[in-house]
Amino acid sequence: MKKFIEKLHFITHDIEHLSHLEQAQIACTAGAKWIQYRCLTKNDNELPADINAIAEICDDWGATLIVTDHVHLNGMADIQGFHIEDMAADFVKLRQQLGEALTIGGSANTVEGLIRLAAEGADYAGFGPFYTTLTKPNDLPLLGIEGYRKAMGLLKEKTIDLPVLAVGGITANDIDPLMNTGIFGIAASAAINRADDMREAYLSFYDRIM
């Protein structure tokens, strides 16, 4: 089942000056149509209230709500899908577990990872990191513009139709060269939610991508 995937994914994050709820609210009022809730600090007793509140905001504004991992919470709120960060996750089993209706996205750092996600039925892929990011510290190789260009070229050669979103340390100034590589879209967090004016930062990303 082919899913609609938005070209700009806003990812909430654990930051000191804005709650996940506030981040989602500001993004939606700026026009966001895709919110990825990524919370690493709350436990299973705290997550449902947070997700339900953000789901209500997304419903009010017509935005898709994707939850990072936490697939065991499926059904507890109006969640449209999940993003799985484990690059070794079995997406065939995840699809059997979650069903066809939900959107399931995965993370990859190599072309081989993208090919596997496509073969196992992922609806989209977050491909990165583009550049150094403190939002999601890791020791994976940075892709840079050339890494995306090569990957998109190889996917095209293999006629693999998978929406690929660049992620990781992306600023508004990176968007034009990234989109010129043939990627589908951009996923962003810190460049938006840590900006002096989060709404303006979101709009700056949106205008360049759309």
UniProtKB/TrEMBL annotation:
One function term, GO molecular function aspect: thiamine-phosphate diphosphorylase activity
Thiamine phosphate synthase/TenI domain residues: 8-192
Pfam families registered for this protein in UniProt: TMP-TENI
Keywords: Thiamine biosynthesis
GO biological process, one term: thiamine biosynthetic process
GO cellular component: a single term: cytoplasm
Listed pathway(s): Cofactor biosynthesis; thiamine diphosphate biosynthesis
Coiled coil (residue ranges): none
Protein name: Thiamine-phosphate diphosphorylase
Taxonomic lineage: Bacteria, Pseudomonadati, Bacteroidota, Sphingobacteriia, Sphingobacteriales
